[in-house]
């Protein structure tokens, strides 16, 4: 008895110390239970809350794990209450003499096969969280009552992981991927759900790409077919993930679940990618993730940057990672990319990233192995009349199998070596072997209009300059904001005008004449929000007919340094100087603070002044004074173009006047 109590106590302690990420932790738990309980097989399923009739395999270790992974999702039929993997209790004394529903082939029929099984649901009987299965090669191995105690304790140790939102989200996604037979809708579902998953787990907006290895004209130059969501769909998915979906978003707009129901009309953008000098080739060769933390720094420092950082349809890409999709000893299916619109330290999210990849890789192998070239043919067929010859050529419909290591090594040879600042590799998550085919005809389940929902961008060597421009602009703006924040001193002199929120002065900033709108800090949140909104709008709009804003300075106070109160000539300097309030300065809030908008100084006066000065009048031949309609129309058109620009940004001025 004492030995048994010591055994279960040690098991509880070790289960409590497994990996904190639930997707990785469940696999560690399966390996731990297999060793501690001396069984030949341990498998763990999760039960989705939105569909308790099915179970999703999350981890399997030992003899027969590959056989279980050929069927990720198990559905319990009403006429078969006892089923392997279903949320029910099951005990098999000798599988060689007993027929068990849902028993995968390869578990009981081969030499050295498993013979005794025991299965228990995890969690409350009326709402189980998962299922735990143990198996041994000897018959009647689980007859002892102590096994029920072990199983209940093991199940209790697994409950926190199965209850985790990431497990439920992945189970929901895999269930819907299992139900989807159309590869186009399947890829669309994966891409939108992957971005949502990363946002949910890391609070970082992300977009996903899927690359499938396809046939190439030259066996030594492997190629891939890269799938992405269209920019509008990607933005809608990101908005839904953050709970800010707009009314103009697509069908995902009202569904905030991780895996939305597959949209049969979803469009996916596809492009051909030669794997020479790419992150994907490097990842496939090294069988580990490749990432770039700061794409701007990488592009500026690399003499020959990787060709798959920016695709023809990509938007802002500040960080990127690609993880190879490898299951067991079989050939690589391809890779899954994640891109982020701000620099990201992947070492902080590698567990979440690799856990998700490990979870979806077996399902992707089952559903998409052998379909890359079929998808490419569908794209070519749908675009043959409108695409360039390089994108509309017919492709072979048979997958050429795994590429040789030398081919990927040659393709990856040109990739610039990542540095400690801009990139590197992540250790690949463990994966178990599984069948490389789902045993069905790839074309039998396609909807008739599947190819019409695939669009293809050109595969010519022209680069996406717009995406490069965006990431470099982001980097330069960030550095510019820091530079301006470090030099915030401002001096003002005569008053140029006055409004409801503040006074506009002529001032000097960086020794350049400027117009400075000085606004005292507001006392209520509503008033402060009005000021913040005005500053945000003025600093965002950029148009030739709108006054440029150089900077918005907050928490400014009047400088009182007497040493700076005289001019160069020694005469009294009437300028008022402002400086940024220190971090620990004025804890009581006694000083008056100001928010200041530093703008372009327009020294030609106002439109009202130009009208009074007669700039819109001209002398007539008879000596009379006439109106210069051409000049007036030109000014009004300039104003109209500026207002049109504001309206396009959904902004309304509301106070246009001549002064």
From TrEMBL:
Where is there biased composition of kind Low complexity?
Answer: 244-253
Q: Which GO terms describe its molecular function?
A: ATP binding; protein serine/threonine kinase activity
Q: Which residues form the Protein kinase domain?
A: 490-659
Segments traversing the membrane: 623-643
Residue ranges of region Disordered? 244-263, 427-450
Concerning InterPro entries, the annotation shows: Kinase-like_dom_sf (IPR011009), Prot_kinase_dom (IPR000719), Protein_kinase_ATP_BS (IPR017441), Ser/Thr_Kinases-Pseudokinases (IPR051681)
State the superkingdom. Eukaryota
Which keywords accompany this UniProt record? ATP-binding, Membrane, Nucleotide-binding, Transmembrane, Transmembrane helix
Name the positions where ATP binds: 517
> What protein name applies here?
Protein kinase domain-containing protein
Starting at the broadest rank, the lineage of the source organism is: Eukaryota, Viridiplantae, Chlorophyta, core chlorophytes, Chlorophyceae
